[in-house]
Amino acid sequence: CFDETATTESYTRSIVGSVRCVQETGLLKQKQTLDRNAYISTLENQLNEARANNLTVQGFSERIEQMAVQIVSFEERVVNVTRLLKLLQSCNDSQEQETQKTKDEIKNMGAKIADLESKLFNRSSDALNSIQVTHLEAVSYTHLRAHETSLHLVCRLLLEKK
Hints:
3 helices
């Protein structure tokens, strides 16, 4: 009661199923190999990109270090310029003080000169007022020599020698 056709069919099905299974397993292995190769290729591309990015970052790092050195140099220059400006400002202030002091002294001297001129004018006026000229008359040289003293005579003779 053994049905041979059923067994043959079943056996054939089993063989066909096994073949299919082997084929699918082979396809799966091929697909896994292709997937593995694709994955490795993707990883290699990412690694190359990472290397390129690393080189770019190193270049930026070097440039940043150079800029930092330049910034320090510029900061030192700014500090020096600030010091110079303060020094110039203090010199300017002292010169302005000296100038103002000199102007004040000139004003004081001008006032003193004006005071002395007014005193001199007053004294001159007083002296002129005190001198009373009663009679002025021209006299001859002989008349002058007649009133000459011995001291005047000596002086006149010394002057005539020259």
